[in-house]
Amino acid sequence: MNPTAGLKVLSLPFDHESTDVLIGSYLSHDAAHDDYQAALACGAYLHGAIVVAKDMTGRVTVEQSDHMVSEVARGLGTIGFLSGLAVFPLIPLTTGFGALMGGVLGEAMHLLTETKVKDQAATMIPLGCAALILAYPRSSATDVQPVVRRAVTQVTGQANGHHLQALRGALADAQQHLATTGP
Amino acid sequence: MTEPDRTTLPLAAPEFGGTANHTLRGSEPDWNLIRHPAPPQGAPNVLLVLIDDAGFGNPSTFGGPIDTPNYTRLAEGGLRYNRFHVTALCSPTRAALLTGRNNHAVGFGSVGEFSSGFPGYTAMVPLECAPLPRILRDNGYSTAAFGKWHMTPDGQQGPAGPLGRWPNGWGFDYFYGFLGGDSGQWDPCLAENQKIIGTPAAYYDKQSPYYLPDAMADKTVEWLHGVRGQEADKPFFVYFSTGCSHAPHHVASEWADKYKGRFDHGWDRLREEVFERQQQLGVVPADAELTPRDDAFPAWDDVPPRLQAYYARQMEVYAGFSENADHNVGRVIDAIEELGELDNTLVIWIWGDNGASMEGTITGSFNEMTMQNGIPLTDEMQLQLAERYGGAESWGGPIMDPHYSAAWAWAGNTPFKWGKQVGSHLGGTRDPMVIHWPERIVDPGGLRSQFTHVTDVGATILDIAGIPAPSRVDGVEQEPLHGVSFADSLIDAAAPERHTQQYFETMGNRAMYKDGWWLAMKTPRIPWVVTPEALKPYAPDVWDPDAGPAELYYLPDDFTQAHDLAADHPEKVQQLKDLFWQEAERYKVLPLLATLSSFFGIMPPLEAAGKNEYRGDVQDVAPGMIPRIYNRSYAISADLLVPDEGAEGVIVAEADHLGGFSLFVDAGRLTHTYSMMGVFVYRQQADTPLPTGEVNVRIEFAADAAKPATGGQVTLFVNGAQVGGGRMDHTVPMRFSAYAGMDIGRDNGGVVDLSYADRAPFAFTGTVKKVVFDVKSHRKAKDEQAVHAVAHQAHAAHGLSS
């Protein structure tokens, strides 16, 4: 990982406006992938999109947008984008008796390589589940959010500021929503 | 030989009619002494076929969308009965069918899993009610049962029995099938006679996998050939009871694919089409009206387009599954024909032991047990979970235990309202029946519309066989049959209607029929909703059944129950209500809602929580007999002998990846996997390798609280030292599986952790000496009582759907 990668994004458009981060949780990789594809196809500008999934045998896969790769090649870079994201525990479901599951957001953001994302996902994503993370400028929200249709739970964080700071802020906001969203 | 007195069973041995001198000099044998009892002259063979969880509007023979060529073949050579009635639940119908008596009167107010302390709900047939197979066997029939049984209480399904309530105890010479309420068709946990034999070895054959419906037909034909090889003329009684069409809906895709696209127009249009065909066939009168959709079911047009394909596939699989059942019954019939005995075989084929099942809830489910464990999942969640396990193309395969939407069941019950569990309406209680007996039926292809009931079947078989219902069996005075013979209707379309009065009751849903009038008293509860909120209005001090809604129909003029006449005939309503209470008293229906009593805290005494020990060769423990680890803390420990080269494999496993747990060793590490109904799957693994030699391993689950589905902490130990752990935020509140068993030293059938599926059954390569379950009591008595209540609800909830 290039530790200075983040510095390259200073000139990117999202320096100068609010950044949103949407996190969706899914019970299947297919569903997360559908929303991921829909987000890519919606025509709006995205800073990045990523799907992290764990199959029933425990194998973790990470899928990221070509769009992101091409965009961030000019700035943030693949590794740089990943460095801004942490993988969050998925929001739990209810049982018939209203029992709560989890909801603990213990992980702070870390600068992670893709390998680290996988490692963390291996711990935090339940077997068979998946997460979708989208980052986009606020101006894209009206186009992006409606196409995310299949998430079992979905939160959006927002922040203003300078590239990574905005991203971090949006993630933190999303985390906060995640903690309070539940059955 | 003189005709024996058949009113007392067993038949008395004949008096010795020969001579026995001091030696053989002058002695004369009496060969009658060593003959087996002979049936009355001309007693026919009997093939009794019962399809599970299916409705009046399912088979094409009755206008339905499911192709049933063999059912139609028999109907065209025999008779269709379009006013035949069952109870609205599995075990009760089966008990009534095989005893000729009302279900409550023989202890089956509910299902076999829910054996309780009221006379009508024990799930134990009284000695005063000797069953039909016992009567036939004692009168000289060879008897055999294949497939679903569902009349052995949960707690009696092991080698310690008692075995009197297994099929052999009911009078079947031979049994091959499953004891519970349902079974996987790919990976059943089978019983043969008085032994659980588990999942067949052919399950692991990738080229030619085991499939229960095929095996049932094979076994039946094999048995028939064996009987005929020994006795050319001895009549047989075969009870062929399919697991189809109960969930899980398991069938090869080529059967389901025959229906691709045929349900894309949805359940509303399907009902209209079926109704039209039913009227064309004449099984529904021309002046009948199609009943409307209840608000409990969504309109097909309101289903989001992206979900319609998912729903349509559910019905495609159900249809293919059902057609396969028709195919396999056809194979049995072909075999009888090949023996040259079809003309003298009375075939009674009932398409449904209750109406089609609405227990999949509106969404349907990738796993039938989600509803039974009270896990609410939206349609989108269900879709995603189905995708997780392979998507639409895997619906019907061994990876899922699927159940379709309640709305498809409603369509399957066309033209009636409601379905299974709803004993108040015809959707739950009226099913097709075909009778085939070329030797006697004079108008093949005819239709019969006499009111008939499942209790009549036994009486009719005995009547045709010339065997009286015994008044004394094993010295016990017998309760007379409650059903009446409809044998004369076989040869006379205008035969008088003999069954003029019948009560119905299932889970508080009641009906009283008399002379054409039908009083329907349905509880307002939606049948598939068993939440505490939904049950609250029926608590002991709250519910007044007489204050509930009542609908009145006159069936001779209103075949479908489309016109409620209650407001016009209040005196008739009251008269039938009064009659219902009289019948309820007479036939042990009381107390109403006994099936749900555990939900209201009426439960058997607490079992002592404690230890269960299993030696290393114990396998296929029935799912209702595993240690009750639900909703509480527990420990599972195992004494192992690990060879120097190390070991791998399963130490103990219950059920499969759709609900269950497994403690196993993989890659040298102790591992614990717990599947919360396949929705959440947790896995914890030891940080250190398993040592060799004598090793003790242990998993402890520390429950957060005495509450249903409690989360908690898992800790793994090896030789007393902590080696790993993790959190499980949800646990199974009621029951892991309807059919999959628990094994020591291996994971038979479907496996719990799919990471070792390719090594199944993943037998332990060391030695499992002993596995001990230590189920902990909660510290406070009230907590213990609460958990006990929940644990017992497991029986009830399971029973609701079996």
Report on the architecture of this protein:
- The complex is a heterodimer of chains A (183) and B (802).
- Helix content of chain A is 34%, strand content 19%.
- With 183 residues, chain A is α+β, with helices and mostly antiparallel strands.
- The longest helix of chain A has 18 residues, at 163-180.
- The N and C termini of chain A lie far apart (39 Å).
- Chain B has three domains: 45-253 and 267-283 and 327-356 and 422-495, Alkaline Phosphatase, subunit A (3-Layer(aba) Sandwich), CATH 3.40.720.10; 505-600, Arylsulfatase, C-terminal domain; 611-780, Jelly Rolls (Sandwich).
- Chain B contains 16 helices and 29 strands.
- The interface between A and B is medium-sized, with 25 and 33 residues.
Label this structure with key terms.
heterodimer, A: 183 residues, 5-stranded antiparallel beta sheet, 34% helix, 19% strand, disordered N terminus, B: 802 residues, Alkaline Phosphatase, subunit A, Jelly Rolls, 11-stranded mixed beta sheet, 6-stranded antiparallel beta sheet, 16 helices, 23% helix, globular, disordered C terminus
Topology:
The complex is a heterodimer of chains A (183) and B (802).
Chain A: E1 19-26, H1 29-41, E2 48-54, E3 60-64, H2 66-73, H3 77-84, H4 114-124, E4 130-137, H5 141-144, E5 153-159, H6 163-180
Helix pairs in contact in A: 2-3
Chain B: E1 8-9, E2 45-51, H1 69-77, E3 79-85, H2 90-99, H3 132-138, E4 142-148, E5 174-178, E6 190-192, E7 195-198, H4 212-230, E8 236-241, H5 253-257, H6 266-281, H7 305-338, E9 345-351, H8 369-372, H9 379-388, H10 406-412, H11 426-429, E10 430-436, E11 446-448, E12 452-453, H12 454-465, E13 472-473, E14 476-477, H13 487-491, E15 501-506, E16 509-514, E17 517-521, H14 532-535, E18 551-554, H15 570-586, E19 611-615, E20 634-642, E21 649-656, E22 659-666, E23 669-676, E24 680-685, E25 693-703, E26 712-718, E27 721-728, E28 742-744, E29 767-775, H16 781-800
Parallel strand pairs in B: 1-13, 2-8, 2-9, 3-11, 3-12, 4-5, 4-8
Antiparallel strand pairs in B: 3-10, 5-6, 6-7, 9-10, 13-14, 15-16, 16-17, 17-18, 19-29, 20-25, 20-29, 21-22, 21-28, 22-23, 23-24, 25-26, 26-27
Helix pairs in contact in B: 2-12, 4-7, 6-10
